[in-house]
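Final report, closing paragraph on structural work. Over the funding period we assembled a curated collection of sequence-structure pairs, and we close with a single example.
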Amino acid sequence: MKNKIKILITGGFGFVGSSIVNKLLKKKNKFKIFVIDNLSRIGSENNYYALKEKVKFFKYDIGYEKKKIEDLIKKIKPDHLFHLAGQVAMSNSLKNPYHDFIINTLGTLNILESIRKYSKNTQLIFASSNKVYGDLKNIQYYEKKYRYETKKRDFSEDTPLNFSTPYGCSKGSADQYVLDYSKVYNLNFTVFRHSTIYGPKQFFDYNQGWISWFCEKLINQKNSKSKIKFSVSGNGKQVRDILHIDDAAELYLKSIRYKKRLAGKVFNVGGGFKNSISILELIKYLEKKLKVKSYYFNIKERTSDQKYFACNISSIKNSIQWYPKVSLYKGLDDLLKNQKI
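Its predicted structure, as stored:
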């Protein structure tokens, strides 16, 4: 019998990681799956209990346990490594920038060094962020009734880097380390700069998972007929392109087949302009769909927030023929059904 393909996923019990694991498990007997996770994220323990019998699990912290990471990669020599573990909330990075650096930058460097020294044939895909482009305040914006607009409908990988906030600095530094290691040491490394990812089974809170967070608030107002208000940062006209979790997970599986085409490159990955939506547009859609009147109040905009961001996904589409298949409103309706309206 042909040897199984070895996949190591850091942050494998997070939202994206667990979705990838579930897709891999459907390819019966093709993959041997290893997961590193420190189980610190909300919901990660739930995914651990659901998947622990189906994967080989290591409760390691990538930032603080370098030796364990090195020993594991040296031992298993994974064919593919999806590096998803990280501190993902900008607000938390402002509260504790040191921890943010340890996890996002040093943790990534620990992974890279382990591969460089002990597993040079491993393909690595690193989950970066659109926050590496900063607040984009040099762009001319047009304020419409429910959203910001700009002449530049979407942003390509040629957009100048401009790290801002500890989160942007830590993710951006890791992003650049990955690309530089690929070039200098001739390793098969790739960076995906993600925009918003959403979908069913996401464990969310105020700081992370804004699509699901607003859905929950309006569902609660509908079910309880409550007029207790929720907060909206800024004026709510900020725009993001959103990507359904099924499309995000499928991208990682497809990257296995096309690793040579991806090597040494960086890609903006999101829903693209046609799947872009503002906070106010989301609220208006939910009001109509749920037949409810929302009650909210505005607070100060978040530090270094982008008024508008949508990925130009032509590069990844042309490279491996990947593109989002779940449309904006189909994805939102799918989410609402799973959140039990």
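The chain has a mean pLDDT of 95. The two ends are 47 Å apart (CA to CA). We thank the funder for supporting this effort.
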